[in-house]
Design a protein that fits this description.
About 55% of the residues lie in helices and about 5% in strands. The protein is mainly α.
């Protein structure tokens, strides 16, 4: 996904409240809505933590963008 506008649209699917950050709960809920109801809270937290470069426990768009760039 090299197009930043496509990435912003994808990120928006996870950022339910539109505050620019994705919480583990938002990630879990979005995955369920996209057809993967098996993502648990601890799994969502692990995914967010793997992308969280500033240590705030959340995933920003910049962290998301960096993670999909390879």
């Amino acid at each position: 996904m090299a197009d930043i506008e496509q990435a912003r649209a994808a990120f928006a699917r996870f950022d339910a409240d539109g505050d620019g950050r994705v919480t583990p709960d938002e990630f879990k809920r979005a995955m369920a809505e996209m057809g993967d109801p098996l993502v648990t809270g601890p799994m969502a937290e692990a995914v967010i933590n793997a992308r969280d470069t500033d240590g705030d426990g959340l995933m920003s768009f910049d962290e998301f963008w960096h993670s999909i760039q390879g």
